[in-house]
């Protein structure tokens, strides 16, 4: 009887693990990825704008719907912490209050940089240690090296996969179908 239970339990475990490891990058309903009135936004997104996202990674990051689509893609790859860190650094650079600078720097470090951080980004030991020292006396540039490494990682690794992804190609198809 125990022999009969083991295969059934393994089958259930395989199913659960299969669901966890399955990374679907298909989005037929783009309302989940587009911010602020998504149906209206998708109707306003032109094929030309969506096509420009392929021109450069920075063009993609500078477009709010491109950013939303890229975030949705990163979620399917379980790596959205990279984009969230990059965005947190961009926001950090706009900090004008010296009092807020230290607390924001500490929060970003604890959330993304520290070993075992809840949303730890993949950076090398030297960059992590330099950032640790920089946060001790924070300035607007204390995350520059770490942010640059993460930007480079996304640009060389995630961005090309995004451009080939079903999320992006489906989004382009939908904008082109509207023109027909």
UniProtKB/TrEMBL annotation:
<dbReference type="GO" id="GO:0005886">
    <property type="term" value="C:plasma membrane"/>
</dbReference>
<keyword id="KW-0734">Signal transduction inhibitor</keyword>
<feature type="domain" description="RGS">
    <location>
        <begin position="56"/>
        <end position="172"/>
    </location>
</feature>
<keyword id="KW-1003">Cell membrane</keyword>
<protein>
    <recommendedName>
        <fullName>Regulator of G-protein signaling 8</fullName>
    </recommendedName>
</protein>
<keyword id="KW-0966">Cell projection</keyword>
<dbReference type="InterPro" id="IPR016137">
    <property type="entry name" value="RGS"/>
</dbReference>
<dbReference type="InterPro" id="IPR024066">
    <property type="entry name" value="RGS_subdom1/3"/>
</dbReference>
<dbReference type="InterPro" id="IPR034949">
    <property type="entry name" value="RGS_RGS8"/>
</dbReference>
<dbReference type="InterPro" id="IPR044926">
    <property type="entry name" value="RGS_subdomain_2"/>
</dbReference>
<keyword id="KW-0472">Membrane</keyword>
<dbReference type="GO" id="GO:0009968">
    <property type="term" value="P:negative regulation of signal transduction"/>
</dbReference>
<dbReference type="GO" id="GO:0043204">
    <property type="term" value="C:perikaryon"/>
</dbReference>
<dbReference type="Pfam" id="PF00615">
    <property type="entry name" value="RGS"/>
</dbReference>
<dbReference type="InterPro" id="IPR036305">
    <property type="entry name" value="RGS_sf"/>
</dbReference>
<dbReference type="GO" id="GO:0030425">
    <property type="term" value="C:dendrite"/>
</dbReference>
<keyword id="KW-0539">Nucleus</keyword>
<dbReference type="GO" id="GO:0005634">
    <property type="term" value="C:nucleus"/>
</dbReference>
